[in-house]
Design brief:
alpha/beta, Rossmann fold, 2 domains, four-stranded parallel sheet, 13% strand, binds pyridoxal-5'-phosphate, lyase, Cds1, Cys_Synth/Cystath_Beta-Synth
Length: 394
C-alpha cells in the first residue's frame, strides 16, 4: 500500500524585532486570514453535511408483549458511511479543525480497525484533505474497499498493536495530523446533548410504555460511545444503567474489573471494531455501571438470530451487545421486573459475509456457534437465557 510523501512543515514567520523604546514587550500575531477562510469553509461543509442527514431509527425488536420487557436497537448502520463511527468521525473532524490541527492539503492519518477510517475518509474528502488509514492486515476487505471508495489510502501493518505508532510516525513524516480516536473520542463528542446518540435514544423512547430504559448496552472500541451514553444518563439524572459488553481477548473487561488501566492481553479481538489489547485512554471506567464478557461464539450466534428476528444482518459487535441485552432481559424476567432495554446496531453485516456469515471462516477459527444458537432459541421461547457458562464470567 502507498504511503504519503514527506512534506516540509511551513516555516513560521519571524518574530519582528521590538521597536526602540519598547524593549521587553513581546507580541506574536500568527493570525492567517487565508487559513481562517479555509477553516470556516471546512467547518461549514461538515455542518451542512449534518444538516442534510437524518436521525437513525430506534427499532423495536419483537418480543412477547406479556414478558413486560421491551428491547430496542438504535440502528447506527443507516448513517451515510454505515456505522456508529459516522458520529465520531464528524466530532473528531470538528474538534481537530477547531483546535487548528488540520491544515489545508495536509493529510489526516488514523489508526483504526476500519469503521472509523471509512467514516473519516468520507469527511476528509468532504473538506478536501488527503486521508490515510493505518489498519491491521486482517481487516475485512470490504472496509479497505470502502476507505478507497471514499478517496482514502490504506496502510496495513502486520501486528494490530503497531497501528498507533505507525500512524503517529506517518503524521510526523508528512506534516499531517494523527487524529488518534483512541485518545480523543471521549472528549471530541458532545456528551451533554446536541442530539448525540444518548439524547436521540431518550427522545425516541418518549412515547413508549417504558420511556426511561433500565439499561443501555454498548460495546467498546475507543470507549467513546459508552462514555457518551454513561455521561449523558448521569447528566440527565436518569436511573438508567450503562452496561459495556466486551469480547474475548479484550483488556477493557479485566481493566475495569480490577481497576487496572495497564492491562494488556497480547491477543487481538476477533470481533471487528471492539475489544482492544490495551485499555484505551478514551474508555471512561468510572461512568460504566456494569460490564459483561461475551464469548465470540455467542456474539456471532446472536447476530445470526437477529437476522431472523429483524430480517437484517449486522456485524458481530452488534451481537456482543445483543447477547448482553438478552442476559439482562432474562434477569428482569426472573425477578418480575418490567421495563425497557436499549442496544445498538453498530454496522451492517454485509461487510462481514466472508467472516461472521461464513461457516468456513468459523470452522477455521474453531468457533462453534451451535450451542449458543440453541440457548438463544430457548431464550426466545421462555424469556430465560440459561447460564452464564464459566467463560462468560471473565
Ligand atoms: C463495528 C463497531 N462497533 C462498535 C464500536 C465501538 O465504538 P466506540 O469506539 O465508540 O467504543 C466500534 C468501534 O470501532 C465499531 O467499529
Amino acid at each position: 500500500m502507498e504511503t504519503p510523501k514527506p512534506v516540509q512543515r511551513p516555516p513560521q514567520p519571524p518574530v519582528p524585532a521590538p521597536a526602540a523604546g519598547y524593549a521587553g514587550e513581546l507580541d506574536i500575531d500568527r493570525s492567517d486570514p487565508a487559513y481562517r477562510r479555509w477553516l470556516s469553509e471546512a467547518v461549514a461543509k461538515v455542518h451542512a453535511d449534518a444538516n442534510r442527514s437524518a436521525d437513525t431509527h430506534l427499532l423495536s425488536v419483537p418480543l412477547p408483549a406479556d414478558w413486560g420487557v421491551d428491547l430496542y436497537l438504535k440502528d447506527e448502520s443507516t448513517h451515510p458511511t454505515g456505522s456508529l463511527k459516522h458520529r465520531l468521525a464528524r466530532s473528531l473532524f470538528l474538534y481537530a479543525l477547531c483546535n487548528g490541527w488540520i491544515r489545508p492539503d495536509r493529510p489526516v492519518i488514523e489508526a483504526s480497525s476500519g469503521s472509523t477510517a471509512v467514516s473519516e475518509a468520507y469527511f476528509a474528502r468532504l473538506i478536501g484533505v488527503p486521508f490515510v488509514a493505518v489498519m491491521a492486515r486482517g481487516t475485512v476487505r470490504a472496509k479497505v474497499e470502502l476507505i478507497q471508495f471514499h478517496g482514502g489510502r490504506c496502510h496495513l501493518v502486520e501486528d494490530p498493536c503497531e497501528v498507533y505508532e505507525t500512524a503517529a510516525r506517518l503524521a510526523r513524516e508528512t506534516g499531517g495530523h494523527y487524529m488518534d480516536q483512541f485518545t480523543y473520542a471521549e472528549r471530541a463528542t458532545d456528551w451533554r446533548g446536541n442530539n448525540n446518540i444518548a439524547e436521540s435514544i431518550f427522545r425516541q423512547l418518549a412515547a413508549e410504555r417504558h420511556p426511561v430504559p433500565d439499561w443501555i448496552v454498548a460495546t467498546a472500541g475507543t470507549g467513546g460511545t459508552s462514555a457518551t451514553l454513561a455521561r449523558y444518563v448521569r447528566f440527565a439524572q436518569a436511573t438508567t444503567g450503562v452496561c459495556v459488553a466486551d469480547p474475548e481477548n479484550s483488556a477493557f473487561f479485566p481493566g475495569w474489573r480490577d481497576g487496572d488501566p495497564s492491562v494488556r492481553t497480547g491477543t487481538g479481538s476477533r470481533i471487528e471494531g471492539i475489544g482492544r489489547q490495551r485499555v484505551e485512554p478514551s474508555f471512561v471506567p468510572g461512568a460504566i455501571d456494569r460490564m459483561m464478557r461475551v464469548p465470540d461464539a455467542a456474539s456471532i450466534a446472536a447476530v445470526r438470530v437477529l437476522e431472523r428476528l429483524l430480517g437484517r444482518r449486522a456485524g458481530a459487535s452488534t451481537g456482543t451487545g445483543l447477547w448482553a441485552a438478552f442476559r439482562i432481559i432474562s434477569e428482569m424476567r426472573e425477578s418480575g421486573r418490567r421495563g425497557s432495554v436499549v442496544g445498538l446496531i453498530c454496522d451492517p453485516g454485509e461487510r462481514y459475509v466472508e467472516k461472521y456469515y461464513s461457516d468456513g471462516w468459523l470452522a477455521e477459527q474453531g468457533i462453534e456457534i451451535g450451542p449458543y444458537v440453541e440457548r438463544l432459541e430457548r431464550f426466545l421461547r421462555s424469556g430465560i437465557l440459561d447460564g452464564p457458562e464459566p467463560e462468560e464470567r471473565g
